Amino acid sequence: MSTEENGTAISVKELEKHYGELKAVNNIDLSIKKGEVFAFLGPNGAGKTTTVEMIVNIRTPTKGSISVLGLDPQKDMKHISERIGILPQEFKSFERLTVRETLKYYSALFKKNVDIDELLKHIDIEDQAEKLYKNLSGGLKQRVGVAIALVNDPEIVFLDEPTTGLDPKARRGVWKVIAGLKDRNKTVFLTTHYMEEAEYLADRIAIIDAGSIIAMGRTEELIDRYGGVAKLTVKGCGKNGAEAIKKVLALKEFDQKNGDITFQLQPEQEVLDVLHKLKENGIGYKAIDIRRSNLEDVFLSLTGKSLKEEEQ
Amino acid sequence: MRPRIILMDFISQLKEWKRSPGTMFWTFAFPILMMLIFGAIFSDMDDVSYDLYVQDLDGTGSSEQFLSGISQIDAVNIINISADENLDDYIEEHNCKAVLVIPEGFQAQAMQSVTDPNATVNLTLKLDPSQQSSNGVIWSIILNSANQMNLQLAQGSNVVGIQEESLMSENFEYIDFFMPAVIGITVMNSAVYGTIFRNTRYKKVGILRKLLTTPIKRSEWMVSKMLFMTFLGFVSSAAIIGTGIAVFDINVHINAFLFLIIVSAAFAFSGMALVLTRYITDEEIADSAAGALTFPMLFLAGTFFPLEGMPSYLQAIAKFLPLYYVNEGLRDAMIYSNWEGAVFNSMIVFVLAVVVFTLGVILTRWKDD
């Protein structure tokens, strides 16, 4: 049975890309189901774009096999290209065409097209249709980029860092558009280094670091498996208090600064037990802050590095 | 190849071009301004006279007749040097910029040509390489006089020679020489800058990566770009020729060679730019690269002044520059009606276009590997 017949949109096996000695992508295996929103989460330079670009035949793999809708991109790109849509990383379109002209241009390249007016409405850029592309804001340009990726009514949409460089409001605007794709039963392959984006949009997430996938699964699964239950911050305990907490709770990983100490609660640990131990040992504090673990904690737990630090 | 896709891409380029004040300037305003400025500068120079030092070593009726023809031209002031003078010393003492030497036996050889078709005699013209603008004028005057004498002696055969090149006649002015070159450099600049800028920018902003994942073929995209470059070449040429006729009353011959050279030039220069673009990854250095390609050609390919007035080593270099053949071919076809020259130069530009453009297409990659 072909991968397409069994409901698989994209299948990647032992994929590698080498640049001299550097392994930009190292032994990646992926399988994405039709209708799934899949996020590739990782810091800049982790190998996200290289992987996507190999899947859509912009780059040639050094090793491994790829199947998109049951076809090999290196041999059947002519057929695959009619059925996929791509928003490349840092994409900008023709400066002096209007939004409508831009969509018509890309639409004319395909056999199958959607109605441009409907597409403008769906992406919520109807009022921008007659504006020149160069005069649009960054957020609107990205929405036009997503619209371009949809002109041929594709089965799979690849969105490579669609919100990088956008302000939070513009980012949410793009999220809304991407979330709408799932309702239209599109398979979405999204790359991002924003954990909130992956968490908000994706059905399943693969975390990539230094060219290799280090974890893959549903958000909750990843957090449960690698992120711990929650993070607890004891505020205003002072340096001595923090030292005592480390000793009493036998902490190995913690973050200590400004008289506060933050650590992860283990699955078997109850907050009340911790507070009880602090009281028992006479450790004073001003406040307690409990935060649910997220993908940032997963990344930290797996790599020992913060995703936000990596971004910077 | 699908004509629908090519037409759609062509129309999109046309829309972008129409909306870009910068490209409109370079296509229309720049060449017209250049024509007007240079035309005005060199039109004023019609009143300037040129000193021509002449040493007549023959001293016969024929040499005197040859010189009297030149002396009738108002712009030339003939200063005779005695045949006894040591020429090199005289030149040094008087700081001569242009010296014509009529050799001993000039008349005898000229007369012999009546019975012996192989008889020839060469005049020596010594020119100061630093005086390029006046050299061009003097060169054309001497050459025209020699041609007139050749017509009288042997129905145009080259009995009296300087160098076997230009066929310019005394009726041609600087603007006749310059206008075809304005077309040449405009086609060159549009093709080189357009191709380099477009390819580096499209690569940087992801348009080439995007197109690579659509059904458009590289050949369709390139044909559309080339058609657009050719269209720009014709639009610019029409504007330049129109200005030349309206302002300078130039007598322009429109013929197939003109079209062939413009199309070939657009392909040749775009091909050169494509080859260069293969090795340019940074949009910021694209401008410098385009300048490095076009700037030497602009000044060394006989654009502003006749090549004959340049030092011999620069003349040799010019023969390796495509713009030289474009300029010469356009002059031969549009102005001088020199069909032999038009065929020769247009064939060189055509062959160059086929070779370089094919190479450019082969080397152009959309993939990022």
Q: Any guess at the CATH architecture of the largest domain in chain A?
A: 3-Layer(aba) Sandwich
User: What structural class should be given to the helix and strand makeup of chain A?
Assistant: alpha/beta
Q: Could you spell the SSE succession of chain A in H and E letters?
A: EEEHEHEHHHEHEHEEHEHEEHEHH
* Structural class by sheet pairing and helices of chain B: alpha/beta
Strand order of the largest sheet of chain A: 5-6-7-3-8-9
> What sequence of helices (H) and strands (E) makes up the elements of chain B?
HHEHEHEHEEHEHHHHHHHH
**Helix segment count of chain B?**
14
What Rg of chain B do the Cα atoms give?
A: 24 Å
- What is the terminal-to-terminal distance of chain A? 45 Å
Let me know the average pLDDT of chain B. Answer: 81
Number of domains of chain B: 2
* Helicity range of chain A: 25-40%
Question: What share of residues are in beta strands of chain A?
Answer: 25-35%
Oligomer: heterodimer
**Topology-level CATH name of the largest domain in chain A:** Rossmann fold
Radius of gyration of chain A: 23 Å
Q: Greatest contact pair? A: A-B, 31 and 23 residues
Description:
- The complex is a heterodimer of chains A (312) and B (369).
- By secondary structure, chain A is an alpha/beta fold.
- Helix content of chain A is 36%, strand content 27%.
- Chain A is built from 12 helices and 13 strands.
- In chain A, strand 1 (8-19) and strand 2 (22-33) form a beta hairpin.
- Chain B is an alpha/beta fold.
- Chain B folds into 2 domains: 3-42 and 173-363, no CATH class; 48-161, abc type-2 transporter like fold, CATH 3.40.1710.
- Chain B has 14 helices and 6 strands.
- Chain B is elongated.
- The model of chain B is unreliable at 164-170 (pLDDT under 50).
- Classes of the chains: A alpha/beta (312), B alpha/beta (369).
- Chains A and B meet through helix 3 of A and helix 1 and helix 8 of B.
